[in-house]
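Figure 6 in text form: structure in, sequence out.
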C-alpha cells in the first residue's frame, strides 16, 4: 500500500512541477535510472533529470494534417526510454488516423515506422522494441536492422494496454475481452510464447 502511495505521490509531483510549462495533458511517463520521459497530447516529449525533475530535453513532434486539411498538434500515445537511456521511443498520432513510431537518439528525431496501427511501444533491449497494435497484435521489431522479427495476434479483441517486468522477460497484456495474457516476448521459432492461463475480471 505504501508503494502505491509513493508512486502516486511521485507522479503527482511530476505533473505539478510541469504544470506551468506544459500545454496539454500528460499522456505517458517512462521512468529510467536517472531520467524520466513525459509525453503530452500536444506533440511534446520532455526528458527530465530524475534527481531534481529539471527539463534536460524538449522534443517537438511533427504536426499532422487532419481530415479537414488543417494542421494539428499530434497526440503522443506512448513514450519509453532504452535501458541505456540514450534512446527514446515515441508513438505519435499521424495523418489518416494512423500512428508513426519515432526514435530520438543523439539529438535527432527520426521515424522508424510510418502509418502503423500501434498504440504503445516499449524497449525490449537497446535494439529491439515491442509494439502493441489496435488490432491486438504483439510486434517485435529490430530497430538496428529495421526488420520485423514477428507479428502475432494475441486474441480477437481490441488492444487495451501492456507492460513489462523489470527483467524484460514477461509481458502482461490486456484487451477488451477482460482477459490478461502473460507473454514471453523472446522469439521461439515462429513467435512469442503466450500463456493460456489468464485473469478474467468479472463486472
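Output sequence:
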Amino acid at each position: 500500500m505504501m508503494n502505491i502511495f509513493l508512486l502516486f505521490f511521485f507522479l503527482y509531483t511530476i505533473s505539478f512541477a510541469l504544470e506551468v510549462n506544459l500545454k496539454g495533458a500528460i499522456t505517458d511517463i517512462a521512468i529510467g535510472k536517472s531520467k524520466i520521459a513525459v509525453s503530452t497530447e500536444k506533440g511534446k516529449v520532455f526528458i527530465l533529470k530524475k534527481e531534481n525533475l529539471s527539463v534536460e530535453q524538449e522534443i517537438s513532434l511533427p504536426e499532422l494534417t487532419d481530415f479537414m486539411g488543417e494542421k494539428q498538434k499530434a497526440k503522443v500515445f506512448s513514450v519509453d526510454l532504452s535501458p541505456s537511456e540514450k534512446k527514446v521511443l515515441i508513438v505519435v498520432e499521424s495523418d489518416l488516423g494512423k500512428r508513426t513510431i519515432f526514435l530520438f537518439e543523439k539529438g535527432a528525431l527520426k521515424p522508424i515506422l510510418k502509418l502503423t496501427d500501434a498504440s504503445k511501444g516499449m524497449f525490449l533491449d537497446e535494439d529491439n522494441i515491442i509494439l502493441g497494435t489496435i488490432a491486438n497484435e504483439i510486434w517485435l521489431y529490430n530497430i538496428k536492422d529495421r526488420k520485423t522479427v514477428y507479428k502475432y495476434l494475441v486474441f480477437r479483441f481490441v488492444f487495451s494496454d501492456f507492460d513489462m517486468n523489470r527483467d524484460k522477460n514477461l509481458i502482461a497484456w490486456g484487451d477488451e475481452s477482460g482477459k490478461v495474457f502473460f507473454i514471453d516476448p523472446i522469439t521461439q521459432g515462429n513467435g512469442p510464447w503466450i500463456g493460456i492461463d489468464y485473469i478474467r475480471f468479472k463486472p
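Caption detail: Residues 117-203 form a domain with the Thrombin, subunit H fold (CATH 2.40.10).
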